[in-house]
Amino acid sequence: MSSPTSAAATQARQAPSYASRGSSHFDLILTLMCVVIIISNIGASKGVVLGPVFGDFSIITDGGFFLFPLAYILGDVISEVYGFKAARRAIYMGFSMAAFAVLSFAVIIALPGFDDAYGVEKQAALEAALGPVWQIVAASLLGFLAGQLLNAMVLTRMKARFKERALVGRLMASTGVGEFADTLIFCAIAAPVIGITDGGQFVNYVIFGFLYKTAVEFLFVPVTSAVIKAIKKREPSYGPRETEAA
Asked: pTM, whole model, 2 decimals?
């Protein structure tokens, strides 16, 4: 019969490893994630047409397309290094900060401005650029919430099984699940806001958004893996934390 000490050691070896979120590294990653989400939401209020790529076919997307995948890469880093609870907190914080930005934009637009020609022109520009952002943010937040939670859940549950092994496979699997849910929810709400009105454009928007964001994350998997490994080495608290695997 094994002793209590050896049983505890075996359990610790079997538990997935995570670092404490009370860390300066976590704070920096969380801050960057919130900034990326807010800027992406502003950029997403602009419809973008790329092409024609071949023949008459053009790619339909939005102005935040090049930046938003970074939010998922940062989410992967948090989930892998700090665990599901930390990832959930980061997701809720990003959600809250984006909502706060929308309220701030509404106040800025509502404040009385100068009534000269330049002031009226600036007011119109603000209303056109930031006015629809609340709808974009609603789409982004709902998609982001569902996608990131699924992403973090898949990544951490796979880590509970594989521990430190198969990091690349875990990143790719969680990305595919999370990005599909995020893209479908976001596009369904945001499409009318940016001027997409027919089924063909909507399908184009969804497919390109999913394939593009997933491809970007897959392309950056070596970088994400390297960042994750570097942070793990620099986190003194990184070690088995059974409760984080739930």
From this structure: 0.77
